[in-house]
Amino acid sequence: MHRTLRPWLLGLALTAPTLTTAVSAQTAVDHLALGKMWTFENPPLAYLEREYGFKPDQRWLDSLRLGALRLGERENPWCSASFVSPQGLIMTNHHCVRDQIAQVQGENDWVKNGFAATALGDEVKIPGLTVQQLIAQEDVTAKIDAGIAAGDDAKAIAEKRKANTAAVIAAADQAHPGFMHQVVALYQGAVQQLYRYRIYDDIRLVCAPHLQTAHYGGDPDNFTYPRWSIDFSFLRAYADDKPADTAAHYFRWRENGAKEGDLVFVPGNPGNTNRQLTVAQLEVQRDVEYPMTLQQLHNGIEILRPFTEGNPGLLTTVLNWENSNKAIGGMLAGLRDDTLLAKKKAHEAQFRAAVAADPKLTERFGAIWDTLEQASQRRRTVQPQVAFYQPSYSGVLERGLAIAKALDPAVPEDERKAAREEALAMQVRGNPITDALVVDHFARAAKWLPADDAFLVAVGGKHRGKDGAVDWKAAARALGKSSLGKAKQVRDLLAADDAAARFAADEDPGIVAARTLYPLQKAAQQSESELGSTIAMQGALLGQALHAVYGTATSPDATMTLRFSDGRVQGYDYNGTVAPWATTFYGLYARGIEFGQKYPFDIPQPWLDAEAKIALAQRVCFVSTNDIVGGNSGSCVVDQDLRVVGLIFDGNIESLPNDFYYTQQKARAVSVHGAAIEQALQHVYGMGRVLDELKAGAAK
């Protein structure tokens, strides 16, 4: 669901843009349709003062930025986190580190049963995990755009921007050794920022609740509210084998957490939104991209589910797929909502009118929408080809593609040599799971590609019945018996002087399928690349137009980099009734009883044993009007005094269409309440030392 757009900048100067005279007062108000994911380099001070009577100063903004973290591998962050004590204590979600806990638990089952390091020396190092603290930003738009001429084609532009980006990062690395640097494209590339990060790479596990505590309600409750999930974990950053000194910047704890009506902020790293896409682009998502993805997720979940018992790695995969399935399903529902899409169309029409009213803007930007419309229509054909001209989980096809590349004279020698070595080293082994996934891949391909598609004919042509239907299980079985599955025969083939001729003439089902797939895959990837260049160029122009019309009054789409969002702790009307601003432990224990302690509403035994100690009136989860998306998981919720009152872990189902058009009438961010974390640490996990650390930090 995530996409990377290669941005392009025409060279328009973007110095202190303001709303043009073409923009009406109503248009200026509608800037919140693009959301509230504010960058720290352009904080919306006037908006915050107008909306809440609160105008933060630079010291407040710096503290908010430096207390927040990005979590994941160094080059692949996936969640958010925060420092919550002077001794490097980090808070994030359980689901953000679930896979990492599985990797370090050994013979234990800490994912299922929880983990508590009751002493500092018991904290467990998690190899490869980092947190990244954004310490500086610099506008490098002119440097990234250097040397680009108006007549350059897409390839030349991409090469120049790639070289410029590398040069900017190299210079930054030299000037500031020991830090990580990233060039971030905002407004689809209209603005380029250089971000500098301090990396903490000695991260240790401190405490994690039971999987069922964090994942309470399972898939039925996912993206819903009211909720009773207590989805938290504590980690610690170390430096020189000691807890890191983070006294300068951390979020202090507020006992008893959030209250109804609180003004709250969420600093975190939202991953991806599509609010700046055109209606034509969104319609392709609605009609092609999301339906294809949902079919794959739904079928994959059903294939994997029977094999999850006793396999925690496979279980976490299913949980992740279930999450994606529901998230994309909610976004698709929003795109199919005629009322909501009509609002997006009206906003786009308003934006286009503002451009059309200014001759200079029209000259630069007037053709964007028509060009993107044409590219979007082309994507309707290309996207299924890119998706299905793949080996899927077929080792036979994967090896066949490597051989085809090794024998292709158009491929550079070094790449052919690498492909040959890959083909020889590859282990072709199937199992019931991968076999079923391969069959599913072919069956879904038959629904999205033409019946006479060359790849489908090559794989399934001999298995077509009198009714025209293909037996894809039989086709997959035949493929699995290919000589490409036998290492000796592959070695003999590649060692032959006439290897290319043999490969071209062999009627082995795997070879036939692979040699048919190889050119189709190359052509599809080339088409996708060309379309991507066009879309990126037009997207950057669209970003420039947006910037020229609205200035910094709009927040850019999410980029998995640090933002902050404002909101209120507030319930909402739903399903003919009212959702409370927060839930309580009364509701959690009642829910377990109501569902007969059956999964996914069963309560872990330690929580049942601790019921008499739990303050049942304390809050478990709460909702707020903050603007979040995937990547914000693990973000602290702080009040205007920068005190922790909760922990983001989800959004409600009504928030999912915010992917393309932001509203806050019913959309809500869902958080673990601070009081629930206190109760868990004190009464269930014996982690009074962490609770004491949080409270001691709050007093400083």
Describe this structure in words.
With 700 residues, the chain is of the alpha+beta class. It contains 26 helices and 21 strands. The strands form three sheets. Strands 1, 2, 3, 4, 5, 6, 7, 8, 9, 10 and 11 form an eleven-stranded antiparallel sheet that branches. Strands 12, 13, 14, 17, 18, 19, 20 and 21 form an eight-stranded mixed sheet that branches. A two-stranded antiparallel ribbon has the order 15-16. It starts with 24 loop residues before the first helix and ends with a helix. Mean pLDDT is 93; it is low at 1-29. It has a domain at 279-531.
Structural class: alpha+beta
Q: How many helix segments?
A: 26
**Secondary structure tally: strands:** 21
Low-confidence runs = 1-29
* Main beta-sheet annotation: 11 strands, antiparallel
**Radius of gyration, whole Å:** 27 Å
